[in-house]
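Record filed here:
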Amino acid sequence: MTTFTADTADHELLRQMHAGRADAFTALYRRHQGPLYRYALMRCGSPDTAADVVQEAFMGLLTKRFAFDPLRGQLQHFLFGVARNLVLKQEEARHRHAALPEPGEDGELELDIACDGPEPLARLLGNEAAEEVRRALGLLPAHYRDVVILYELHELSYQEIATVCQVDIGTVRSRLSRGRAALAKRLRAHAPACLTN
């Protein structure tokens, strides 16, 4: 029986998992659960919902409900895309019940301010202003929130984000710029101390 190491490729772990190896599933879960949970938590703001999203993503992977093709990209990016779609589905269900209007792409966040090289969001989340940043991030429209989280926290490239979000690279750049600007504006308005640390 083979032992899996940190160097074992995801596609090999998947193959072994589908062949019935529980330890392959455990290795995949340990490798990807943390980043996936952090993404889902930042994306939806609820620890319970984030945990549900992670569980559903991994169960879908296990049962082949979500079919990963290693020729189309990395497993981590695929899982981010699955988590994003699961969160969007939950948000859609909530909005149907709440009947609240969605902010539009051209709404109040139509900002053309370029934010070149702001402090990475990951560093901000590590200091005392973390809760205020999370709250401000949660107020961004979903399409801005996705790219900001994937770029700043998970350090995905524009191309990788485009694949996860199923948009073109120009849209990623635009949403990232506008999302950063809107986030900075919200932080300045509600927690000036966040920006001075």
